[in-house]
Structure formats: C-alpha cells, structure tokens
Amino acid sequence: MSEKDSNKSSFKESFKNKLLEKQKETKVARKIVLTVFTIIIIVFSGLIGGGYLYIKSALEPVNPNDKKGIEVTIPIGSTVTTISNILEEKEIIKDARIFKYYIKFKNAADFQAGEYTLNKSMTFNEIIESLQQGMLMQEAAFQVTIPEGRQLDEIASLVSKKAPYSEKEIMGKLTDKEFIQDMMGKYPNLLTDDINGKDIKYALEGYLFPATYPYYKEKPTIEEIIEPMIKKMNEIVTVYLPQLEEQKMSVHEFVTMASLIEEEATEKADREKISSVFYNRIEQDMPLQTDPTVLYALGEHKDRVLYEDLEFDSPYNTYKNKGLPPGPIANAGETSFNAVLAPEETDFLYFLATKEGEVIFTKTLEEHNIEKNKHIIGQ
Predict the structure, then answer these.
(1) What domain of life is recorded for the organism (predicted)?
(2) For the purposes of burial, counting CB atoms within 10 Å of the CB of 279, is it exposed (0-12), middle (13-18) or buried (19 or more)?
(3) What is the pLDDT of residues 138-154, one digit of tens each?
C-alpha cells in the first residue's frame, strides 16, 4: 500500500471513530434530555396533584365534628384579606389565601363588623353567610328546642309556643303538598318518594331533627322555621348513606326503624339491644308488637296501651301487621340511628320497660310474661 493510500485509510478510520463517538454522545445526550424531561413531568404532575389535594382540603371545614364556639372579632373597615387572616389565626379556616380567592370567585361582599361565634365545622358558604348577615353577632329573637321522640303535632305545638304562629298554621304548612314537594326537591337524598306512600299519615313525620334552633328575625316565615330542621336531618342522615347502601336499607326504612327504637327507649335503655329484638323478630317473621305504633295509629298520647287498643285496625299497628310500619312515628336522635346500623347480637325476642325506667330483655314469651306480671300487672 502506498503512503497516499495509507493516509487515506487512516483518515477514513479516524472519521469513522469520530462519527461513532459523536453518535454515542448524541445517544447519551438524548438519554439525559429524556431523563430530565421525565423528571420535570413527574415533578410537575406531583405539584399539580399535590396542589389539587391541598386546595380541596383547604376548601373543606377544619373539623366537621367540632362545633365548639370560637369568638371572632371582625374590626370595622376590615378588608377581605384582613378577615381571611383573622379566620385562619382563629383556625376557623385552613388557608387565608384560598378563602380570599373563594370569596372573589363567589363575588361575595358586604361583610359586617362585630363579634361572632363561629366554629371549625362551618363550611365556607356558612362562614360567608354569617359574616354577611351578622347573624351570629346578635342575640336570637327566639329559639325552639325539639327533643327526641316527638311527633309532628307535638313539634307544631312546641314551635307555636315560641313563634308568632298558631299550631294549626304550623301543621298546615307541615302537611302542605307544595311545601313538601319543594323540600323534596332541595333534599332528594333524604325526602324520597317513600314519604308519600298511600298509608303514610304525615309525609314529614320523623324528618325534623331534634335540636335547638335559633331564629334571628322577629317573625320568620313558617318555611324559615321548619326548613332548618329538615336541613339538619339531611346533614345527619347523609353521614349514614354509605352504610345504608351497603346494608341495602332505604333512608325511609332507616328513619322508621330509628323512630321505633327512640319511642321504646328510656334514659336507661340499651338501644342496641332494643334494635336487636326488632331485627330478631323480623328474621323470625314475627310482628314487632311495639306499643308506640298502636298509640300513633290511635292518634293518642297516653301512658298505657289497653288490650282493646291492640285490635285497632291501622297499617301502623305492629300487633296486626308484620314488618315496619308505613313510616316513622316520631323523630329520632343519633343514638337511635346508630343502634339501627349496629344492633347488639342477642337472642332476645321480648323486652319491657319498668316504671323505674329499666328495660328487661327476655328470650321467650314465658319469661316475658313472668317479668310482665312482676313489674307491670303485679303492681
């Protein structure tokens, strides 16, 4: 090979090596770029995901179960930023910036200065409404306390003693079809078509939650008095919806069973055991035979059910009809709701309440009659 050919071959080899080296460098560069790009995408996605979760959390109440009042002072001339910072410092909200942007998004304004009693369970909308109306900086014009185990006519009577309306006017609204339909539209998960069954005595029976309700107007409308009771019931029942779906129990059945437990229970009663008796009797195809349903059917309030009362012909009479009555017979508290979904495991089929408020549970009719003779008939 001549020197010329040798130089030419060496050049080709050198060029080839440089080309291969360049290709390697290009591959490495591509890998680095791809790796960096992937990292950027992951980090960016993480930031977006984390940001979404943070904002979602910040929009929720600080603690849905903490209703303890917290005193909050909103000074005169406070800006939205100032109000947001005060609420965050008092731990009424999680993030002042999110609250401020939410106010702007809702185009909310006209916040009033003053002393407020707020709590950590309040939603953004509830806080905004309170600050706009100044509702919590003034004393209630009146308040109505609805105890557990009250029927619709009793609730109407309690309201009439506090509000400027007669019992007849209040019952008229509680049984008004247009009002009931309006409430069904607002609270569809609570007030289902079941409340309008053909044997139902009162559609809203059992659906006014027992609690104390303050009213800040001297003369609110009857709708404004009643709706908070339904709204509160909706909030309570909503918590149980996943369990109801799991147990294939309708809201109406749930509220009805709770009302029976509430009416049979005393302060000393074990509601979980009462619940177990009802479930045990249903499982054995026995009528529930609970006295409060007879009294509800009769439309009377009295201390003792007579044997002749047990023959009263009504869909609500659980001595003559098996299973649950057509609907609730009173309102119920959360303790009774919990008992519906968590009955104690027992073999009891009977119970009776003594005059002292004690509830005695038995497994057989013979045992029940012995206790009945001892505590009821024999006295």
Answers:
(1) Bacteria
(2) middle
(3) 577 899 999 999 999 99
